[in-house]
Amino acid sequence: MNIMKYFLFVLCLNLCALTLFAQKEDYRNPMKTPIERADDLLSRLTLKEKIGLMKDTSYPVGRLGIAPYNWWNEALHGVGRAGLATVFPQAIGMAASFDDSAVLDVFSAVSDEARAKFHDFRRRRQFGRYQGLTFWTPNVNIFRDPRWGRGQETYGEDPYLTGRMGVAVVCGLQGPREAKYNKLHACAKHFAVHSGPEWNRHTFNVEKISNRDLWETYLPAFKDLVQEAKVKEVMCAYNRFEGEPCCSSKRLQVQILRNDWGYEDVIVSDCGAISDFFHVDRHGTHKGPADASADAVISGTDVECGNNYTSLEEAVKEGLITEEQIDISVRRLLKARFELGEMDPDSIVSWAKIPLSVVNCKKHQELALDMARKTMTLLQNNGILPLSKSGLNIAVMGPNANDSVMQWGNYNGVPGHTITILEGIYSKIGYVPYEKGCDLVTNNSFESLFNLITTVDGQPGFSARYWNNKEMKGEVVTTQIVSTPFKFDIGGATVFASGVNLTDFSAQYKGIFRPDRSGTVILSINGDDGYRIRVNGEEVINYWGTHAGAKKEYALRAEVGKEYDIEIDYMQDRGGAYLQFDIGNYHEITPDVAIEKVKDADVVIFVGGISPKLEGEEMKVDLPGFRGGDRTDIELPTVQRKLLKALKDAGKKVIFVNCSGSAIALGPETKVCDAILQAWYPGQAGGLAVADVLFGDYNPAGRLPVTFYTGVGQLPDFEDYSMRGRTYRYMTEKPLFSFGHGLSYTTFLYGVAKVNKNVIESNETSILDIPLFNAGNRKGEEVIQVYIRFLEDKEAPLKTLRAFRRVSLEAGERQDIRFFLSPASFEFFDSDTNTMRVRPGTYELLYGGTSSDEDLQKIQLMIK
C-alpha cells in the first residue's frame, strides 16, 4: 500500500469513528467541547461514582466506559519514577542557566517522552501511578532559605526568574494551545507560602508575613503560571496559612486563586494533606475525615492524593456539603480528562503518534548535555582554568567524583547511562589517578565493587524481578536491570520499579560477582520489612519477616578467578519501604594518607559538596548538619574542608567542583582553592559538561539563582517567613557570592544604556538599550540582568530582577541588547491600597552581569 492509499485508509477510519461517536452520547463525541462532554457525563454519574473520580487513584466506571486513571505523575527534570528516561539537570541547575528558551526545549522533549510512555502503558492496559498525563511539576515555591532540602526542586530565590522558568516548563509540557488536545497537564506547586522546614511541615502555620511579602515574593510566580501559561493544575501545600490548612484556605484558594485570578481548572492536594486537617498531632483543625474532606472540596480542592474523600458520601448525608458542590469539582476533573484526549481512542489523538523510541533518544541525550553545560557556574578562578589537556600531572579526588546517582537529583527517572565527573575527565585526558579521599561527611569511605557484578547474560548489575504480593509468587509484574548500588526508597512515593506497588510487594535480585583480587569483601544491606541474601546457594543473611529497618553485613572471603552467585530476596509489608545494598570494603582514610596517594599531582580536581542522599523531602537523615532532609548549617562538611586545606598545605593546586542543590558557605574554600565550579546536580550528561568547562571546551555562563551566604549568621531564623534580611532583594550585608554571579573565560564590558524616554506614563512600555562588548579573545555567553528599584518606597525591595537575557558574542563583537520593560516591570506593592500596581515616582534601572551593586550601572526614569 503506497503512502497516499494508506493516508486515505486512515482518514476513512477516523471519519467512520467520528461518525460513530456523533451517533452516541455527547460525552463520547470528540466534536463536542470538553466542557460540553463533561456536563453530559456528569449528569449520568451517581454520587458514589463522582466521589470515586476525585481520588488520585481515580476509580473506573465500567458502565460508562471510564477507565481507571491515576492523577499522580512526575517530571521535575525529566519523566520521573517510570523507568528509563532522559535525566536533565535538577531544576535549580536549570535556573542557573538563566535561559528560559532552553528550559522550554527541555520540557518539550520531556513531554514527548511522557506522551510516548503514556500510550505505551495504555496499550498494555496499565493505569498505575506514574503512568498518566497529569504531571505534578513545576515547583515554583521561593527558595527563601538555603537550609530547605527541597529548594533544589525550585528555580531559586527570585520571583521573576522563578516565574519565567516556570512558564517555560508549563508551556513545554502542555504543548501548543491551538492543538485539539493538550499534550500534558502541568501543575504549579505548592500553593502557597511554602518552603520548609521539612520536619514540621504537617504542623507548621505561616502567619507572620506581610501583605507585601505575600504579593511581591510568594505569589508572583504562581500568578504567572495561572494567567500567562494557563497551567492546568495547582497543588495546595501541607502547611497552614494564617491558621487554615492551605488545601482549605479561603484566602489562597477561593479569594486569590479562583476569584482574583480567575483560575477555573483543577486543584490537587499534596499527598496526605487532607489527613493533616484532623490528626491531633498535625494541624488538628477539623473533627474528622468527612469534615476535612467537605471543607477542602468547598474550598476548591478537586482531587485528593489520599483516602479521605471516600468519606464525602457521609459528608453529604450529614449536611456538610451538597452534591451540587461536589459536581463543581467533578466537572473540572472530567473536563481535564477530555482536554487531554484520555477518554478518546489513540487513532484521533495526534500525540499518540510519538514513538516510544523517543525516550532517551540521541537528540534528547544531546539536549541533556547542552543544558548541563548551561548550568555550570564558575564562582572563582585565579587563572588556573581552563586546564591544559597536556603537560600537567592531574589527580581526581572527592566523594562525588564517581557518584552517578548524586547527579540525578531527586524526583528523577533512570537514564540509560550517566557520565560521572570522573568519566568526563577521563574522556578529556585519559586515565589519571583517582582517590575518593573521604565520604560526604566522614572519612570512613566505602569502596564499592558493585561494578564487578553482572547478570547471567553479562549486563552490568543485578537482574531484578518484582511481584505485587509478599510471597514472590504468580505473575512477575516487571523486570529490570539494577546497574548501580541499590538505593531504593519509597519516600515521596517513589516505587521500586514501574508497575510495582508501594506496599505489599516482593522482589528478587540476581547477580554474579567476579572479584579482581582475593580478600575479604563486605556485603552491606539495609532495609525493611524483610530481606535475605544467598551466596552460591548458601544463606548468609536472613532478616525475613515484618521487621523494622536494620542494617546487616556479611564478610565474604573472595578469591580472584572464582565466581559468586548472589541472590537477594526482599519483601515489603507496609509502611515506608527501602532497600540499600552494596558490595565492597571500608577504608578509614586520614588526610595524610589520601594526599600520599596523589603525591605526584600538580593539580587536584576535588569533586565534593553534598548530595540528594542528605538534602531532600522529609528524609530520614540524622547526621551532623542535617535534619529530616533540611540542613541545620550550610557549611561544607568538615571532613571535606579539612582535606581541601591539607591539599593546599601540601602545595597542590586545588580545583573544587561543588555538587549541591543549594547554597554552600564556602568561605574557607575561597582561600584554599584556586578555582570553584558550582555543578549542582547536573543530570545524566553532567560529567562531560563539567569536564568541558574544566578543560576549556565550553565557556561557562551559568549564574547563581540563589545567594551564597558566608554562613548561617547571615540568615534569619529558618521558620521566619518574613523576607526581611533574606535574599539579594532584602539583604544589606555582603554575601559570599551574589545572586546572578558567575564568571567566564572572556571579559564582557557594558556601555552606557539608554531609555527611549526618561518620563513615561504608567501604562507605557519602556525600551532599554544596553551596549555589550566581548573584550576577550574567545567566544562566550553573557547573562545580562536588569533590576529595578523604586526610590519612593523605603519598604520596597532594595532591587528586584525584572528582565534577563543570555546572549552569545564572538571575541571582539559588540551588540546593543534591547529590552522591552512592560508596565508590569514597574509594579510594586502599595500598602495604601493593598495591591500590586505601578505608582508614580522615580525608578532606578540597574543593569550588568550580577546583582552586586558595585558591578551594576544605573539609569533613572520617571513614571507620571
UniProtKB/TrEMBL annotation:
Keyword Hydrolase part of the UniProt annotation: yes
Pfam families: Fn3-like, Glyco_hydro_3, Glyco_hydro_3_C, PA14
Organism placement in taxonomy: Bacteria, Pseudomonadati, Bacteroidota, Bacteroidia, Bacteroidales
Gene3D superfamilies (UniProt xref): Glycoside hydrolase family 3 C-terminal domain, Glycoside hydrolase, family 3, N-terminal domain, Immunoglobulins
Domain (PA14) ranges: 457-599
Listed PANTHER family: BETA-D-XYLOSIDASE 5-RELATED, SUGAR HYDROLASE-RELATED
Entry protein name: Beta-glucosidase
Gene Ontology MF term list: alpha-L-arabinofuranosidase activity; beta-glucosidase activity; xylan 1,4-beta-xylosidase activity
First-level EC class: hydrolase
Family that this chain belongs to: Belongs to the glycosyl hydrolase 3 family.
InterPro entries noted in UniProt: BXL, Fn3-like, GH, Glyco_hydro_3_C, Glyco_hydro_3_C_sf, Glyco_hydro_3_N, Glyco_hydro_3_N_sf, Ig-like_fold
Chain coiled-coil ranges: none
Record flagged with keyword Aminoacyl-tRNA synthetase: no
E.C. number(s) listed in UniProt: 3.2.1.21
Signal peptide (residue range): 1-22
GO biological process entries: arabinan catabolic process; xylan catabolic process
The entry's keywords: Glycosidase, Hydrolase, Signal
